[in-house]
Every structure is written in structure tokens, then in C-alpha cells.
């Protein structure tokens, strides 16, 4: 019984030992304040992605909210790109970004997933 209690008490320390702070959920307002650093991507994001990815009721994962994006990210960038191009659930094909190239979409996905600048 004592070993079980010690194991339970040690669980929170395992997250501390990893060196990473667990992600915290963002509010809609916090998400809406985010914008890609690249001006072209910022314009594409504002015109196509932001309307849904900053509103919880849209059921789209909020921009920058790693608590919502991390599980999706584990599917791989290719799977996320395919879903964006084909559309998924309530998201129309291409996110209705008619001028987005596949590279633009990859960069936008990285930004929204909280991984801007990662390759």
C-alpha cells in the first residue's frame, strides 16, 4: 500500500522531469490574437482559417491550442495536409483557401498547431 501511495505521489514529478511544460488550453480571445509571422501567410490565414479556428463552436481546433492539436499532429503532417486539402467534417476542401499552395497549407497547419517555424 505504501509503495502504491509513493508511486501516485511521484506521478506529477514525471512531467517535471521531461523538461517540457504541459500545454494549456487557450481561450478564443487568446487564439484570435495569434497571427503567422510571415505576411503572406498572415493574409491567407486571416482570409480562410481564422474564422473557424478561433471559435470553439465551429469544432475546429483553436489556433495555437496544443491541447487540441497535439493528438492531431501525431498523425503526421501528410495526414493533416490531406485532410485540409480534401476537407474534413465541417471543414470544406482546402479550407476555402483557393490561393493556398500545398506549401502554404503546410505552413498554416504548422502555425495553427503551435509549431510555426518547425520543419
- Count of distinct strands: 0
Radius of gyration: 17 Å
Mean pLDDT: 88
Report the order of strands and helices: HHHHHH
Q: How many strands, what sense, and barrel or not for the largest sheet?
A: none
Strand-residue fraction? under 5%
Low-confidence stretches: 1-16
Percent of residues in helices comes to: 40-55%
Structural class estimated from helices and strands: mainly alpha
Contiguous helical run count: 6
Ends: how far apart?
Answer: 47 Å
**Morphology:** globular
What does this protein structure show overall?
- The longest helix has 16 residues, at 2-17.
- Helix content is 55%, strand content 0%.
- The chain is mostly helical and 119 residues long.
- The model is unreliable at 1-16 (pLDDT under 50).
- Helix 5 crosses helix 6.
- It has helices at residues 2-17, 28-32, 39-53, 66-73, 77-86, 102-112.
- The N and C termini lie far apart (47 Å).
- It contains six helices and no strands.
Key features of this structure:
0% strand, mainly alpha, globular, 119 residues, disordered N terminus
How does the SSE layout of this entry go?
Blueprint: H1 2-17, H2 28-32, H3 39-53, H4 66-73, H5 77-86, H6 102-112
Describe the structure concisely.
By secondary structure, the protein is mainly alpha-helical. 55% of the residues lie in helices and 0% in strands. Helix 3 (39-53) packs across helix 6.
Amino acid at each position: 500500500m505504501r509503495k502504491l501511495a509513493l508511486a501516485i505521489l511521484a506521478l506529477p514529478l514525471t512531467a517535471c522531469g521531461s523538461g517540457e511544460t504541459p500545454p494549456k488550453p487557450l481561450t478564443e480571445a487568446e487564439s484570435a490574437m495569434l497571427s503567422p509571422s510571415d505576411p503572406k501567410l498572415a493574409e491567407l490565414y486571416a482570409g480562410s482559417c481564422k474564422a473557424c479556428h478561433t471559435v470553439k463552436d465551429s469544432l475546429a481546433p483553436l489556433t495555437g491550442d496544443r491541447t487540441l492539436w497535439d493528438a492531431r499532429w501525431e498523425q503526421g503532417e501528410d495526414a493533416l495536409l490531406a485532410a485540409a486539402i480534401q476537407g474534413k467534417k465541417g471543414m470544406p476542401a482546402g479550407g476555402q483557401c483557393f490561393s493556398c499552395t500545398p506549401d502554404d497549407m503546410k505552413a498554416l497547419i504548422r502555425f495553427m498547431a503551435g509549431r510555426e517555424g518547425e520543419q
